[in-house]
Amino acid sequence: MIEDGLKHSNVTELKEYSAKIMSNNQPSLIFTDKDKKLLKNLKEIIDFGNSQITGSYNINSFNNKQLTIFLAFGAINNYSGAIYKLCEDFRAIPAIVLLRSVFEAYINIFYITKTNSDKRIVLFWIEAWKDRITMLNELTSFRKKYPNHKNIKSFMDESTVAQIKLETEQKIKNTRKNHKLTTKQKHPDLITVTRKLDQAIPEKSRNGKFEYNYHILYRYFSPFAHLNASGINNFLKQKPDGSHDFITNQSNDLIGEVLASTFSFYLEFLSYLKKYKLLDKKISLTKFNKMFRNDISKKKN
């Protein structure tokens, strides 16, 4: 059982990341021996995860924590497979975009399952339902603005939108009542979650590791996910003659960090599945913990 938050995470320093991304040197499309091993390790742990979640599940038998962790792992498993394929093709930046989401899922799941109460989990779901209502309201406004738009009519009719909205609003109301929650209580944003997790660590051991990873992995790479002006500015390389080329791949060092971090979060989620009895108790993760100790945690050395 893993209790120590980002025990397995392996995100590098901001300056190291910046140097790798902004470098004008053309990266060599050759894997180092270490990165070949990291690529092999990630494939192996993903294949193992896939082998454990095949078949049908009666999710109605799951409690709230089990269901949320189970659903999160389904997403993380999918994203991790895509990260593997992107790194195999030397495309580190698109892989990091997916890794940001893996990190976000991990932080939220770790936070909402850290207490014995279901309140954090319930608030997590309420935020999703509120977002659904916002989307439906925006869709209704668009329909009123463009009443003759042929595609919007076929996408979702007005009665369906109204019904889903009504059901969702009632679900939120009933859930708040059942769990004695006020309308002011809500699931915090991601940076607040990381700060709360840091504050929960005894002061002598506290080093801001959760918020640090938020800034270095999640926030710093936000422009690459949303492709704002800052994001699109990082895909050109200036050549000695002053002309520019598009960057279609990134350095081996950066790919190694992405592979190591993805492996780390994937292992965390497998540990969660086992902790909450979503994996057979006889299943051993010793092999992958050994991989982490030998190949991941020592990567910086």
Name the beta content range: under 5%
* Terminal-residue CA separation: 26 Å
Radius of gyration: 22 Å
Q: Tally the helices: what do you get?
A: 13
Mean pLDDT value: 87
List unreliable stretches of 5+ residues: 1-5, 10-15, 21-27
Report the structural category: mainly alpha
Polypeptide structure, described:
A two-stranded antiparallel sheet has the order 1-2. The protein is globular. It has helices at residues 14-22, 33-52, 64-88, 92-112, 119-145, 150-155, 158-178, 190-199, 209-219, 222-226, 229-232, 252-275, 286-296, and strands at residues 236-238, 244-246. The chain is an all-alpha fold and 301 residues long. Helix 2 packs antiparallel against helix 3, helix 3 packs antiparallel against helix 4 (92-112) and helix 12 runs antiparallel to helix 13 (286-296).
Q: How would you sum up this structure in a few lines?
A:
The protein is an all-alpha fold and 301 residues long. 64% of the residues lie in helices and 2% in strands.
